């Protein structure tokens, strides 16, 4: 019994060292963890191409525009956006943000509807929606205070009203997506480590669902109370805690193979699922 306790202690210490070596350099790069996203569904839009941007109300001292190659945009419509500044509200994509935000302003309307996606750490907690039409009309929405990390907002061009979908529903759908994706990715790693799925699927699924619930609750709570940046800051240390919890539980409940292999499986599985998640968030075209 004493030998097993010492062995497990050494494994946990090894895991902590590996985690520090892997994640600390990444943390320093400030490009780690899930990235917030905003999905806008615009309805009752005029036919043709419109430009849709987000209005923010903070002063920009050192930032960068979030669009490039201005030659592809209509100069008159773009100029309307650039010059828009009412009570401090200005277009985020065109005039810039403190930190990057990915997306585009071109809204290709079909049957009176278009969808727009914005992502990365520059997505604002508070914003308005502005639409500029080909004939120079400008429509601005009410203020939206987003609560969901991955948010969906409906915008009606005719009324100018914008409203976020239920934050609870958004987080539930996000949990289903991330949890199922994690199970698939880490399940493949489980097989690559030569664990028998039939013998191990119950603890494997239970542990992953448990840790995904913990992670989701942590991000949801911080996002709802403090906003995007706070949620991002919480994610990094909490992800390390989750990994250590999984490693200890896999050591105890997985069947077959040595404790060392179980710990290594936990480390590799989490790194792979984390890397896939980052790749998806940085490449919205892959969604």
Automatic annotation (TrEMBL):
The chain crosses the membrane at residues 171-193, 205-224, 230-251, 263-282. It comes from Acetivibrio mesophilus. It comes from the Bacteria. This is Uncharacterized protein. Keywords: Membrane, Transmembrane, Transmembrane helix. The keyword Membrane applies.
